[in-house]
């Protein structure tokens, strides 16, 4: 797990913050932006409104580029193209960047653990994210990681789950995924790591992120519910770990929405925020059912913004778009 001190200075777009390992003094983080589904060869109109929001951190939620190739030189060139976007260069100068992948930056649509180039592709992802060569996540299999921001009573832990590297195979019948009742998403080592990260977390807020959606069970696309036992295992673990103020964050879908699950494990509810569609969205999802949705279904270009008011004891998640438009707002009490 990485711990960060945010060292801030004035920057033309707002505040420039660079990460430094091992916090030396107390500092607070109050604004985190996140998003997914970003074509490196498409117009990217959302970086300017993201910068205008002055977040202290950007989190890639997967499909960070559309690589879609087993040829590593092709993926490398596509990452390089994204890195040369002027507004993205400004973002990188203004704040730390962390993230995880989904399938298109993994290298093959809907791929899992049998993708032959997964280790090489993982290394390219880490290069793109600026993960140091001596970082512990480079010494293990997969792309999962955790990051701790702030100190004292107002810490935020971000747990980034890898839903590709260890994921078992899914089969389709009539173009619809058949649930894999016994299959795994995370694999045994990542499960052990996650259990430790949750049970040992002292953070006041814990964001748990995955490229694919956690809560939905009705739509026919990629989701945790395609592996029913894994979904239940994850929810059981979050509930039993005693981790404070967990919030689920996801991408992948080319839509945005806010969801809430309330059951015996989560009597006060657990929220999921999906932000997906930095460069393109899917208007055909306009009528998609989701029993957990508590916002509108958003099919405009979007990103997520989480704001933390430590004095009021509230965190506010917004789905935002071009020119700073706000499409959804969800206030969650910090217990």
TrEMBL record:
SUPFAM superfamilies: Metallo-dependent phosphatases (SSF56300)
Gene3D superfamilies linked to this entry: PhoD-like phosphatase
Domain of life: Bacteria
Pfam families found in the cross-reference section: PhoD
InterPro entries for the chain: Metallo-depent_PP-like, PhoD-like_MPP, PhoD-like_sf
PhoD-like phosphatase metallophosphatase domain sequence ranges: 72-291
Coiled-coil spans in chain: none
Record-linked PROSITE patterns: PROKAR_LIPOPROTEIN
Name of the featured protein: Alkaline phosphatase D
